[in-house]
Design goal:
The protein is an alpha+beta fold. It has a single domain, classed as Creatinase/methionine aminopeptidase superfamily (Creatine Amidinohydrolase), CATH 3.90.230. It has a five-stranded antiparallel sheet. Strands 1, 4, 6 and 7 form a four-stranded antiparallel sheet that branches. A three-stranded antiparallel sheet has the order 5-14-13, with no helix packed on it. A hairpin with a 6-residue loop joins β13 and β14. α1 runs antiparallel to α2 and α3 packs antiparallel against α4. The longest helix is centred in the middle third of the chain and has 18 residues. The radius of gyration is 17 Å and the shape is globular.
Amino acid sequence: MRRSGLLVWEILQKLAKMVEEGVTTQDLEAAAEKMMQDAGAKPAFKGYYTPSAGTKYPYVLCTSVNEQIVHGMPSNKRKLKKGDIVSIDTGVQLNGYFGDSAITVPVGEISESAKKLLKVTRESLELAIDKARAGNRLFDICGTVEQHVVENGFSVVREMVGHGIGTKLHEEPQIPNYVDRRNENPRLKEGMVLAIEPMVNAGAPDMRVLPDKWTAVTKDGSFSAHFEHCVAVTENGPWVLTRP
């Protein structure tokens, strides 16, 4: 999993450097797909089927711009503009194991409120990672994200969640970014790997899915940010597999 995680990190680092005004989200897609092919990795997202969409996802990236929360589809028509933010989410399968990570990147100079949104979302992920320790419970992660986000005046998306990951892209447990008392609250054990991914809205938490059946957007049109890492629970504490 470390090898697949580092490949995802390398891809996202390259794409982040490509982000500038005039670049299309399809440009990012093409670069990512080539890197996967060159590394002998399979894309985790392309061909992924979900019943709610009723189709297989056709791209290796999710590129979600501004009010798009997750699952934004790359397009030659979507040119990035100054002031935009773009969430880039991708995953690979290498030697049977998955890696999955996301970053949100500013396009040129962005507003102060957008800067704060990115900062708080990134911070909430780092705080949550620190809770991925044997003996803690799942709600320690969920509640840490929620508390930091709400204290800073933002909201967490409730319909979309993080997940376990390993030989499948999505494994148990589901990891909401808030404490959902209806869910089980398992104790974390060594060897678990968790894809922790705060999805944070500048406005209200409500979302809707566009007619393409994939792209989730904020109902109020506010910006949304997304950061994600795969974290192994080890005897020495959290080990982030998707960065050096």
